[in-house]
Every structure is written in structure tokens, then in C-alpha cells.
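C-alpha cells please, single chain.
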Amino acid sequence: MDTTAPRTAESIAARFHDVDSSGVPEDFISYLQKMEESESGRAVREITYRALEAAEGRGTDVGCGAGRAVADLARLGKDAVGVDSSQAMVDAALARFPHCRVVRGSAFELPFEDGELSWYRSERTFLHFGDPAEALSEARRVLKPGGTIVLADPDLGSMAVSSRITETTDAVKKAFCSAVPNPHAGTRSAGHLADAGFTDIEVVPVMAALSDHASAFDVVLEPALTAALAQGVVSEEEAARWKDDLSDLSRRNAFTATATFFVTTARLAS
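Here you go.
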């Protein structure tokens, strides 16, 4: 398999750490824009913004992608600096929101001084970190005592879909989970934060329910199915039957796909 091919689970789900060398950064940018325009994407963002309402001073959105949250936070009066490891994402963010500050940098080596920031936000990013403890150690370094951290990630194991072909659904879900480094980031963030010494931990679950067949395939099911095909756990014939089953359910208004996001807020002890 060509690992640089666009529109595969490997490129979309597993290669966000390597967007610039994919050859098709526009696919990643398009995917993020679909996610940000979804009802669940908006709901998750709003919860993270509310969690930061009391935070004053400069903060960062780590893994900011194409810049939507940085722009929103700036509009809300926050001194926000977006950071992304991909130059293509940085360029896209600045093209969309030229008034915002977005820089290239790594979550494991942030471009800030010790204790410089009052808040730290990251959405759908820790999902891609095989070692979240390392990223949280860096978050501790740049945050002031009493600073706020907000992480928002799904647990891919929570994915459910109304297909009547249970075996294929189970195989697709398992493959999707194995395609990313930290598939259960949403449910495990609280524990990781506690281990890193953060306090006042709060978790808000957000159910993402997609009754629109096309949208569900765009943002979740197609990447998940491609992972299953790439890993050889689902055949082309099984994939076709599964898609036909879901299409039939959609035609009869009986299609549903869900997954749960978890917004986890904590503070760095004063």
C-alpha cells in the first residue's frame, strides 16, 4: 500500500503528526473543516470556550489546525496563540484568519517561556500522541501556577452505528482504534492529568450523533472503514455489504452513528 496516498485512514487518522510530508495537506485541511462545521464540533468548541472564560492573559491552542478555535477565542477577547506542527496548517490558518497569531511548533517543545501562559487548550490532538505524559509535562512547563488546561478528545471505542451487520461494525471499530496512537484519549485524559499533577479535574461528555449518512461517512465511517480494509480485517465484499446496509437504513430514515467526546478541564496547582 502507498502510505502517502490521500483519503486513507492512515493519512487522515494516523498521519496528522506528519501532514506536510503526506503530499496532500489539503485533504487534512478539508477534513478538519468538515469536523469544525459539524454540530458536535461546534458543541465541543463551545464547552472548551466556557471552560476558559475566567482565564486571563495569554494562552495557546495546541494542535490548532486550520485556526478555527484561535479565531473564535480572539473574538472572545482572549490573547490566543495557535501552535501546530504542520506548516501547511499554519499557512491555512493565517490565510483564513489573518488577524490571528499562529506559529509552527511542537506540543513537546512549545515556543513559550517557563510559566508564560495562563491557559492551554487542545482539541482532537492528544488522540495522536502515543505518549500524552510527555505533552502534559510540556504543558506544565509553560503554564503559570493556577493555569487552566482544557483537553477535548473522543474515545474511538465509543463509536456506534446502526448497521445490522454487527461483525463488520465491530471489525471496523477495532481497526479504527488501532489506526491512531491514543484512541481512548477522551476517557483517559483525566487520569493522565492527575498523573501529571493537575488538580480540580472536571470531565464533560459530549455525544456526537450523526443521523445524516453523508456527513457520518465524511467525518467518521469512511476513515474507519478504510482502516479496516487496509488492515485486512474486512474484505472488499464485506465493506460493500456494510455500506449498502447503512445506505438502506439511511433511505428509510433509520440511520444513526454516534461517538462520545470528552472535554476535560484541570488546573496547575498554585
